Amino acid sequence: MTSGSVPAPAALAGPFPAARSLADPDTPFAVVDVHRVRRNAARLRARADRLGVTLRPHVKTAKSLDAAALLHDGTPGPVTVSTLAEAEAFAGAGCRDITYAVGIEPHKLPRVVALSRRGVTLRVLLDSTEQATFVAAAAREAGIALPAQIEIDCDGHRGGLRPDAPGLTGIAGILHDAGCLDGVLTHAGESYSCYTAEERREAARNERDAAVAAAERLRAAGLPVPTVSVGSTPTAHAAEDLTGVTELRAGNYVFFDLVMAGLGVCGLDDLALSVVVTVIGHRPEYGWIVTDGGWMAMSRDRGTAVQPQDQGYGLVTDLSGTPIPGLVMTAASQEHGTLTARDGAALPDLPIGTRLRVLPNHACATAAQHQGYHVVDGSGGTRAPVPGVEAYWPRVTGW
């Protein structure tokens, strides 16, 4: 993985031609501001250091070896993944400490065993006796430990066991007997509905308390709990005390997005991901500007629709990244985006061929629509009318 300055355009990878500026590639395409990525990464690293915990970034947002290289300040470090393809790609790049934070199922265990045989510590996640039993059986058959963490439900979000669930110690015992018990993990999914700083702090306290309570219960039963893992982007940035916790996870923060800005976790100037689109038409009778970037470029995610300020499918900036007052992407079909003005703003005069950037609702979903990122560096303090491209970062593909 790269760790220093961004490679020159000559190093662009894959089938994409070397782009010298954002005026070159055909639209739509994804853009990442590496200066903002570095700043976002440094902010959370410093917070984890202050809280005395290991930072384990979730790489599912960018799915990029180049982006991940910046998360630990250029040095190898632990990561979280959401697919085994990610685990395999990061292992291939030299990462040896990986948590696969999606519930395990039997069909995937041969790939887990294969990575373990390569010297990778790949932790799996589970929340049932059935899963613990087949993980333990696979470990015994392979003759190696397969470290597993028990998912704890801290807020009624998706999977996991409550800290006081009757089956918790039994599941842990099955894993321990096979040498597989690695600890507990929780994720405060409901923090994405916390609109005040105090609500986010309370979500972080609740997340910590649930994980620590589960760990203490297992230890009281004579079971080892080396890892107590918590995290979401909102709680990671709100936590004030992580006593009893060993590691902190977050993923969205590498790019941030309009949902996080709407919650108050970040500002618009922290958003590192955008999509470049081109004006292809006008419907003045409807107050529309039409672009070539629809939901295939932005995704269908409408995460801000439930927030006090609905941002449509994204906020619009000029090519330099300067927001255009009141201009929002309010509708999308597969390859067409519709821009309209709101809050009394005048619809700007944008001729056909004008390039714009759209800030996404959900960085993870928008990034998934693209094979990689054209990289710009916004650290100069002034916004170039047509930013130069410094590199191309391909994304990890496959499942």
TrEMBL record:
Classification from the root reads: Bacteria, Bacillati, Actinomycetota, Actinomycetes, Kitasatosporales
Q: What superkingdom heads the lineage?
A: Bacteria
What is the protein name for this chain?
A: DSD1 family PLP-dependent enzyme
**InterPro entries according to UniProt:** Ala_racemase_N, D-amino_acid_metab_enzyme, D-ser_dehydrat-like_dom, D-ser_dehydrat-like_sf, PLP-binding_barrel
Could you give a single Gene Ontology term from the biological process aspect?
A: D-serine catabolic process
Q: Which family does it belong to?
A: Belongs to the DSD1 family.
Q: Show the GO MF annotations.
A: D-serine ammonia-lyase activity
Domain D-serine dehydratase-like positions: 272-377
Q: Which Pfam families match?
A: Ala_racemase_N, D-ser_dehydrat
